[in-house]
Design the sequence.
């Protein structure tokens, strides 16, 4: 149940009114890969729910650190482009953890994301 809630939240962050315009044409292929990664995760979940949970906890740590960094900016101020990019790095982390066979667009790890956030 916990994994399904996380998957729903991920889908909600990827599919919403106006998402195509927000994502942009240059990112649609990546977006499609993120959706496929969700399917792969759902296929693997019954096989090893403990491994899924460990990966999910790491992703939640990256998401919390990202949100904390975003909250440092006033609500009426646009986020820097470099910070907005972390959203996609976290999606790449999903692919890395749950659907490695799909490949990532860039080398990715928890450490890379946290180091990148620290540099902003």
Sequence:
């Amino acid at each position: 149940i916990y994994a399904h809630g996380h998957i729903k939240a991920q889908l909600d962050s990827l599919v919403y009114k106006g998402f195509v315009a927000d994502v942009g044409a240059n990112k649609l292929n990546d977006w499609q890969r993120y959706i496929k990664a969700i399917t792969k995760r759902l296929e693997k979940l019954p096989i090893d729910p403990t491994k899924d949970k460990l990966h999910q906890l790491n992703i939640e740590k990256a998401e919390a650190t990202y949100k904390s960094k975003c909250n440092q900016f006033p609500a009426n101020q646009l986020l820097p482009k470099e910070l907005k990019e972390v959203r996609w790095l976290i999606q790449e982390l999903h692919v890395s953890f749950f659907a490695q066979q799909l490949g990532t667009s860039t080398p990715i790890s928890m450490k890379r994301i946290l180091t990148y956030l620290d540099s902003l």
